[in-house]
Amino acid sequence: MAGSGERRDAALPMLTVRQAGRVRALVREALARQGRRVTVFPGHIEDADGAKFGLGGIARVLTARAIPEPRWGTLVDAHVARMLSAMAGPDDFRAPTEELLPRTYFGLYDRTALPGTGGWGYAREALPDVLEVFVLDCPDSVKTYCGDEVARHGEHRLRAAALANARREDPGERRDFDGVHLLCSESMHFASSALVLPELVLKVTGEAPSANGVLVAVPFRHQVLYSVPRDERAGRSLEAMTKIAAAEYRTGTGPISPHVFWWRDGRFTRLTEGAPGETPRLAVPAEFEAVLDSLVRNGS
Question: Mind listing the pLDDT tens digit for each residue in 218-235?
Fold first, then answer.
């Protein structure tokens, strides 16, 4: 979308400085047409009532899908309309906690997709540079808990409910490529099942993760990819997953991350690297290189 020599924006690194300026202007203009007086910050926009509108989400949609710049205005208008519609609805978070727990899930977002200020200070890093927040499944939308709402209903209770609901997520479709299992679901919460990865693997293919762990990717909210390294084919599976994850991230609804991660003993390590907007490339740490070498030796 942009020349390689153009400088990246510090707050929206998936965009160049010029592109980021245009996105800020488009969002500001869309809100102004709705009668909202706003202040523009590098990573978000705030209106006179203190409501914050993150810019990372729409920026990632525009770049992940390589949307031509002449079409940005239409997509920004639609994005702003959806945000305002969700805000205008009833305050679902006022319901008793017991009524909210069955509808509480984890939402996964690239770190740059949430504003750096506001009500998401409780967000935790679920995978490297991927944050988890609590979201509430409502009839016509999904709403994100802010910090005050988390405090009101109890972070421990919300986390336990979100984990339980992640365990209930089921893939509606499975395809296999070079040892990679590609799982898709109509549920917009399906990607959160990666946070209970051993249980997902056991549910799908009946495998218990070995000491070598599991390769996993969450390109967008309806999809999880995984592969269990068991033999000398693990390197080929990793290469295939790297290509698939990047492609699915560019085209999927609700993009999360184009990267591949290695889960072992409850910890996620990123196996690919690349600046926002770039195609990820392998960057395997020594710890995982040793695993691959061991699998090759044992298979020879």
Answer: 999 999 999 999 999 999
